[in-house]
Amino acid sequence: MNFRSPLSALVPGTAGRLLTALVGHHSADASRPLPLDELSGTAAVTTTQLETALFRLGLLGLIAPRRSGEAVRLVPGHIAWGALHQLTHLHSRVADTVREQMRAHLHPAPEYLALSGAVVEGTATHPADVLELIIVRPADGPDDWEDGVAALVTQVSLALGNVVVHRGARDTREAEAMGGAGAVRIVPA
User: Fold this and answer.
1) Where do the structural domains in the chain lie, given as residue ranges?
2) N or C: which end of the chain has fewer CB within 10 A?
């Protein structure tokens, strides 16, 4: 999955780039009219492509009615903006996804679990970009506890569409060193 620009990955071509630019504008200043030359540059689309795509977005109600060549005015309260914002920030859901899968597969919970890599950072652009799980096994983990780790890795990989790997550490100190300052800690919370 492309976590850097997920809308462009999910909606390829002009429409995805345009939606990404419009969501960015909605976040920055939804009430400001957006001149076509600015939108064209931000979305990296020609004016001709822009007019066609804007017409379709106008039919959906995301932008106010306009004539060809006029600045774009968003409809800030449209129901779709919330969903589009969530799609542009998918990397913020990675920790929640891992947490949910951990609860389903790791009994008892690990002593320590952290995430690192391009996926959790939001910079992944390809399915081969990695999410790394750094795990410290609990002292009271049963013999088959590692089977749960394998299931966790598989399920998170399927949920995200990216390669997920895990590295085991002997203790929290070693795990923290593996993840570095940028690691996102899941356990302990």
Assistant:
1) 6-88, 90-187
2) C
Angstrom distance (rounded) from CA 176 to CA 117: 14
pTM confidence score: 0.81
pLDDT in the model for residue 91: 86
